[in-house]
Amino acid sequence: MDKRIFGKDCWVAAVTGFFTGLFATATIWFSGVKIPNLVLFSIILIAASPVWWVIVISVGQILGRKFHPVIAQLTKFSAVGFMSSSIDFITLNFLSWLTGVTEGIIIGPINMPGFILATINAYLWDRKWVFKSERRGTRELSKEMIGFFTVAGFGILINSAIVYLMTTYVGPDNFSPTVWLNISKIVATSVATFFNFVGYKMLVFPDVPETTGQTVK
């Protein structure tokens, strides 16, 4: 294993972890969730998130070498996915707070801007760090981007449909509308993330070698 590449992966994991913790903290503040000692909790979350993702990436590299390289790739995809999701969540909660909308047909459009920003962020990180695409030509890049955003487009439809259905038809009485909106978003994001990973792996980056920190010859 190339230690320089492994070290770079850990640094990238720390950066993605920091922003994940930061945006997750902002989401909690906007959502109005009651947490004792919220300031202390926020500091711990922001500080612990980079450490957690460095550990996850390190374990993924070890398991990837021992069993299958896709494990390492999946852990990096997860790190990017959590950061992108945190962008999605903070955008959704900010727009919900701004408009007062937490359910109904209008929640679909309210949900979309965050997913679009998250998808752009995911493309940039997935292309260079997770799948390490080396495509350079205009035609190749155009084909790659069209494929990526097509998969992401289906992902946003799945994401928004689940959020709409859960907030409009399933919402329980023992959760506030804002809390249930975020629970619905977690379920929707989990399903959409799995769909996106399979789509990217099979359709967008099928020819990219799976590596676990070693230099590709």
UniProtKB/TrEMBL annotation:
It is a multi-pass membrane protein. GO terms for biological process: polysaccharide biosynthetic process. It comes from the Bacteria. Keywords: Membrane, Transmembrane, Transmembrane helix. Its main location: membrane. It is found in: Membrane. Belongs to the GtrA family. This is GtrA/DPMS transmembrane domain-containing protein. It comes from Candidatus Taylorbacteria bacterium RIFCSPLOWO2_02_FULL_46_40. The lineage of its organism: Bacteria, Candidatus Tayloriibacteriota.
